[in-house]
Write a structure and sequence with these properties.
about 300 residues, mainly alpha, MetI-like fold, 2 domains
Amino acid sequence: MTTLNIQEVRKTISRNKRSQYIFNIIGILSMLFGIVTLLALLFDLITDGFPRLSWQFLTSFPSRRAEEAGILSASVGTLLVMFVTSLVAIPIGIASGIYLEEYARKNWLSDVIEINVTNLAGVPSIIYGLLALGVFVYGFNFGRSIITAGFTLALLVLPVVIVSTREALRAIPNSIREAAYATGASKWQMIWDHILPYSTGTILTGIIVALARAIGETAPLITIGALTFIAFLPEPPITGQFPYISFSWLLAPFTVMPIQMFDWVSRPQAEFQVNAAAAGIVLIAITLAMNAVAIYIRYRLRKKIKW
């Protein structure tokens, strides 16, 4: 290599290092901007809403008087809607991910399905609300009920669950599959006994992230007709009489915490703004708790992975 070439190589290395340094600075500034903005919003929310948090606020129904209003019906509605969403989205999403990744043939049809599933994850949430209004509310006559809200949010998070399941399965080395086949295992035995245990942590993380998104959605629930003022609770799913299980709560009208917050912030009285901030703190606490559970489960399951 001549002296001219060596100088050219040194210039290229120096230029690449300078570009890497500039990119690092831009990345750090972008990250700090996001973190500082989030902390500022959280600080403002906690400053406004924390004094309103009390047991009375958590166990009271909405009221026209701000100091007597609470989030009992909204929090119960949120839990019931998320329960239906989980029952629908998790098994269908995992089964679809397993089929597309392990069973479906790699041809143009599977490519079309994969592209559509990926694109559905980015569709605006209000589109799902319009779809649910036509299909569940008017088509199946479920009305503006808890089951309609659960199905709507399940449709919303289903692409996320499918994509996270496929990515989790794809991350398992093929040597695990080949070793299972070498011992005489069938395809389902290979998936159930070897692939799923190793990918459960990542799948659960995707599910929790999807549910954390669903719990804060407002637009699709407004579209299907969620109420903003409910001063009663639906019938409990467990009763004291035979058959001891009731499904009437599925068709009960509902409200959720984002809808309750939307109603409060739209009122001119400043006291309702404080109530909305307090409800926001509770909603953020639930979301952070769900993420903490996901991180803990992933940590515990990954400790057992040995390959």
